[in-house]
């Protein structure tokens, strides 16, 4: 084991001993193929209005105070009443999760981590940097369909883990709404 790697292990163990959640460094290891991940059901995004995927109660919990704005691809939800300001983007995409791992949506500058959103296969997708710009939670809701939920700061003051947690919470809410559709 290299000195640098053993230092990271010691730091993670020290944080764990203190009762803190360790910060996990992005991995360059291959991400598990979503094809091997099963989902509990198929939830179609066809004809879904992205602006309707977060309810008023959910928007209150996310501290979103502005009216949802339709974008070219989906919907934007802003929290701009008090600093720090941030926004969520919700976008239905016609592509499998595999597209972000090894397909046409893969970007070598992005870090991809496997995730799980309420039993559905998911990925966290972000550019690792000292000044994080966003985090996307990608949820494979059906064959060839991915729900993309992005959290990004409008003002500074956010860590990468915080943005990813925010994105995942909003994705869980949107998935809950999608599952409740007739």
What keyword list fits this structure?
4 helices, DUF3558 domain-containing protein, 182 residues, seven-stranded antiparallel beta sheet, 7 strands, single chain, 25% helix, Jelly Rolls, alpha+beta
Description of the molecule:
Residues 1-25 form the signal peptide. It comes from Amycolatopsis xylanica. This is DUF3558 domain-containing protein. This protein has two domains: 1-30; 31-180, Jelly Rolls (Sandwich), CATH 2.60.120. The protein is 25% helix and 25% strand. The chain is built from four helices and seven strands; from the N terminus they run ααβββαββββα. It has a seven-stranded antiparallel beta sheet with strand order 1-2-3-7-6-5-4, with helices on one face. A hairpin with a 4-residue loop joins β1 (69-70) and β2. The protein is globular. The protein starts with a helix and ends with a helix. The model is unreliable at 1-30 (pLDDT under 50).
């Amino acid at each position: 084991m290299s000195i640098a790697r053993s230092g990271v292990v010691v730091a993670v163990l020290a944080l764990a001993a203190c009762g803190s959640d360790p910060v996990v460094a992005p991995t360059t290891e291959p991400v598990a193929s979503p094809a091997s991940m099963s989902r509990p059901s198929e939830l179609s995004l066809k004809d879904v209005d992205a602006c309707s995927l977060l309810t008023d109660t959910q928007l209150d919990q996310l501290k979103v105070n502005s009216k949802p704005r339709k974008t070219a691809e989906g919907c934007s939800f802003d929290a701009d009443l008090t600093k720090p300001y941030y926004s969520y983007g919700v976008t239905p995409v016609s592509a499998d999760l595999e597209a972000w791992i090894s397909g046409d949506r893969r970007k070598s500058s992005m870090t991809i981590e496997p995730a799980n959103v309420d039993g559905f296969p998911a990925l966290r997708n972000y550019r690792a940097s000292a000044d994080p710009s966003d985090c996307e939670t990608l949820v494979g809701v059906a064959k060839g369909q991915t729900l993309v939920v992005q959290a990004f700061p409008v003002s500074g003051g956010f860590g990468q883990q915080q943005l990813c947690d925010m994105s995942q919470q909003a994705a869980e809410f949107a998935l809950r709404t999608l599952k409740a559709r007739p």
